[in-house]
Amino acid sequence: MSRIVECVPNFSEGNNPQVIKTITDSIAAVEGVKLLNVDPGKATNRTVVTFVGEVEAVIEAAFHGIKTAAQLIDMSQHTGEHPRMGATDVCPLIPISGISMEETAAYAQKLAERVGRELNIPVYLYESAQTNKKRANLSVIRAGEYEGFFEKIKSPEWKPDFGPAQMNAQTGATCIGARDFLIAYNVNLNTKSTRIANRIAFDIREAGRVLREGNPYVGKIVTDDNGEPVRIPGKLKHVKGIGWYIEEYGIAQISINLTNFRETPLHKVFEETRKAAEDRGVRVTGSELVGLVPLQPMLDAGKYFLEKQGLSSGVNEATLIEIAIKSMGLDELSAFDPKTRIIEYLLKEEHDSRLVSMTVADFAHETASDSVAPGGGSISALAGALGASLGTMVANLSAVKRGWEDRVAEFSPWAEQGQKLKDKLLSLVDEDTRAFDTIMSAFGLPKETNEQKTIRKNAIQDASKYATEVPFRTMKAAYECLPLMKEMAEKGNPNSLSDVAVGVLCIKTAVRGAWLNVLINAKDLDDREWANQMVQEAQALLKANHSECDAIVNSIEKQLMA
Fold this sequence. Notes:
Layout: E1 4-7, E2 10-11, H1 17-28, E3 33-41, E4 46-54, H2 55-72, E5 88-97, H3 101-119, E6 123-127, H4 138-142, H5 145-152, E7 174-178, E8 183-189, H6 194-204, E9 209-210, E10 231-232, E11 239-246, E12 251-258, H7 266-279, E13 284-290, H8 295-308, H9 317-328, H10 338-341, H11 343-347, H12 360-367, H13 376-399, H14 408-443, H15 450-479, H16 482-491, H17 497-522, H18 528-561
Parallel strand pairs: 5-7, 6-7
Antiparallel strand pairs: 1-4, 1-5, 2-4, 2-5, 3-4, 8-12, 8-13, 9-10, 11-12
Helix pairs in contact: 1-2, 2-3, 6-7, 8-9, 13-14, 13-15, 13-17, 14-15, 15-17, 15-18, 16-17, 16-18, 17-18
């Protein structure tokens, strides 16, 4: 799985477009990252840049951005309304998919160490990247700002985590951290009343509302022994919210910032807002996402609403997203296009799914042409995907079988698992062809000099290893389908037993076909120890798969012939 993170550095320049462009060009030049947004502010004299990609590429791009900003921005001349302490004021990494917060924090620390060492900039870690929770809060670290840091940095308490314990007059200091993705989300109401919208916002947001004597809206504020207002907490953690009126649409909205969608899911925010609105006599008519959103909260929402409807949640990704959009009314005010609004989809390249995006006829025509790819490896992965699809189909048919309504919770998880395995195998259809293309590219390298010959030989060997690993991954993914197939053969809809058997035969074909591709790609590898180990593991998997597939198919044949 790709390890995708977002990075949102804030640079202390908002007025000079050439400086901003030079910084963002240095970021965009790194292969594997995609620049999503550049938002300069003149009054703040600050530009917020957003880019995403594979984590290694992202931290490389972040370093280049910080380096370029250090060269072009002179903090001794900087003024602006926003608090700041350096040319690159803050640089947070945000996990999107395939990577945990702990792993993201480790990469933030790696980036911070490099910035301190190579650029001689004082660096402070913050939020999840900071192990000392007393200095994890950004506002606490930044207190005193650029001007105050010349003295602050000398204090042992405020020694930087990396870099010199001396303020750099030109670059200032930098904060690098890891935090959760912030989802900006508005919920639409069938009222124009900002007052009602605010009351609903106070009901749900973590900070809640202040406690008042008598009348909860205008009574005297109750304070504690320290004179601080006593607060009544709202229903949802990690939620900030306020009500406002949108003249363009003639409705009131609740404007929400969701700072941790993993602990407080997006669909829960929608549901609790809906309930709070109903309690106050108004109705939620829909909602809107501002900017981009990770894939996972959309999938979680689709699954939630399907389960609430008593249906199987083991449907494909596109269906889950469609259910989420319709259930939360994300398309009420404007169209919601997943391809342009979901981060992972923005990162997808056309070549990632060229083959699987074809029609069945076009795929067959492509395979039957005089091109050597797609070949047996891609076909093996496709066979495995079709096998997983049949098993998933039977799980979903079992979940909706008349008289089995109480067994949805039993079959739905199996269908979900099948969807994931199907998607994994589909991705391998194109990856197998890309692996072959990598070998062909290596063979095409120049070989005139001894140095070029060595580079070419190493490239061919690396590409051949990759081309061996891909079919081995196909074998493993296909083999992982057998528990699903076995469960459906034993407990699934009996009218679909033949479908299960055909699916198992597809799995058997996928594993054996991929095995042959492991053999052909491993045979010419110079690293015989690695090749022999790969072949041994693949052979053991082949034997286990062959035995289990035959057992399932034989059992089904006996039942059908009885």
